[in-house]
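User: I'm putting together notes for a lab meeting next week and I want to include a structural view of one of the chains we've been expressing. I don't have a solved structure, so I'd like a prediction I can at least talk through. The sequence is below, exactly as it appears in our construct file.
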Amino acid sequence: MEENAVKDQNNWAGGVHVAAFVLALFTSWSAGVGGMIAAFVVWLMKKDESAFIRTHATEAFNFNFSMFLYTLIAVFLTVMTLGIGLIFVIPAALVLAIVWIWCTIKAAMAGFNGQEYRYPFTLRLLN
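Assistant: Thanks for the context. Below is the predicted structure for the 127-residue chain, given as structure tokens.
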């Protein structure tokens, strides 16, 4: 593969994680929905063009979808326990936020460097 094509592929692969993270931050009220949308758009655009980009877009989508589900579970537990669940939800949310940031940085760096990356704690919905 031509050097410019490889760089472009790596930029898309790393960029999908950055785009998903930034869009998820701007739509923080929806806990990952923005990240899912960004990753899904890249997946739709590039899935037939590059298996490497498709893999990174899939990982970004699945990770943001998982974060969304974990947030829904936390909200459900909080509501069902009339707020008492916040004793567990708040520390868990802080840890999850740190994991989200750390894993996204690692995934983006892997993509930019032409390496594969699999997010931990992720439900694999999109393949």
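A couple of points you could mention at the meeting. The chain has one domain: 3-112. Residues 3-112 form one domain.

User: Perfect, that's what I needed.
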